[in-house]
Amino acid sequence: MEDWQKNLAQSLTTPEQLAAHFPVDVATLALVVERYPMRITPHYFRLIRAVGDPIWRQCVPDPRELDDLDQPEDPLAEESLSPVPHLVHRYPDRALFLVSGTCAGYCRFCTRKRKVGCATMRVTMGDVRAGLDYIARTPQIRDVILSGGDPLLMSDLLLKEILDGLSRIPHLDLVRIGSRVPVMLPERITERLCALLRCCCPLYLNTHFNHPREITPEAAEACARLADAGVQLGNQTVLLKGVNDDPEVLRELFRGLLKIRVRPYYLHHMDLTRGTGHFRTAIADGVAILESLRGTLSGLAIPQYVIDLPGGKGKVPVCPDYVQRMGDEVWVRTPEGGRIRFPEVRG
């Protein structure tokens, strides 16, 4: 067993383990964990400073998860868009391949919290082969995103088998991996794993930092190993109430990500997933936060703010309204809130 596997086995998975460190209502949390499992790695647990802080909120079960019943369990209609088990074909040229059923840590806001870490998310080799066969016989698919669960929790051998299978499909242009392992379990990013990934170009990895305290020396080293192996790194942040719905927090996060060679890619508005309502912010708040970052950060550090529409309709950008037409004139709002007239092209 490798060191990262030993550390993963030492994760906190019960309210009783949590109660040994913090005052919690074990019986109440046990009801939540019975429905939505808990796993907190030793590395991530050490980042908690107090009950209810931004790290705590992301990983510790909350009774409000069981009170939020108004939204669907599968808001993006992934189940109805799956031609074979664990593969979602929503966009014509892309496929989401759910190759793993578990994560290093179970985020309380996960859009797949209905099944990640549960028996219903068990992925077999038969499922993997069926997914590879579907991709191979569907030539319009040019981009495959490996997700789950977390693909990097698989063994090197199994991950290599999947990547080799994808590399033999001639119509694929690129492969992407979605993983929170650099944040939750950075020791998993071994030299051997990076050597494996180095042979699979072009390969992109989108990770998932939500708060600047998650950019630890260990996480920075993990990202450096991936970048040195030629893996293109991006980050998908979720806008979370009480975690990062603050311009200063996101400014520090995005600036810190660039320092470790991770490009801020998406700022996701919360999906309408059952059990996550206490994390949801107003769209207007997200727009205002993004607008406040303009002019204070490099353009490289500013992600695209997006909403993944319910029912599997896809992602759409949410942008501040900078341009206004007044008669025959076009006026553009400046980052400071002023306005200037912009010369319009006359036909």
Automatic annotation (TrEMBL):
Ranges for domain Radical SAM core: 89-313
Top-level taxon of the source organism: Bacteria
Residue positions binding [4Fe-4S] cluster: C103, C107, C110
GO molecular function: 4 iron, 4 sulfur cluster binding; isomerase activity; metal ion binding
Keywords: 4Fe-4S, Iron, Iron-sulfur, Isomerase, Metal-binding, Pyridoxal phosphate, S-adenosyl-L-methionine
Keyword rRNA-binding carried by entry: no
Cofactor(s) the protein needs: [4Fe-4S] cluster; pyridoxal 5'-phosphate
Keyword Metal-binding attached: yes
Gene3D superfamilies: Aldolase class I
InterPro entries hit by this protein: Aldolase_TIM, LAM_C_dom, Lys_aminomutase/Glu_NH3_mut, rSAM, rSAM_sf
Location of N6-(pyridoxal phosphate)lysine modifications: K315
Family, per entry: Belongs to the radical SAM superfamily. KamA family.
Name of this protein: KamA family radical SAM protein
Protein species of origin: Trichloromonas acetexigens
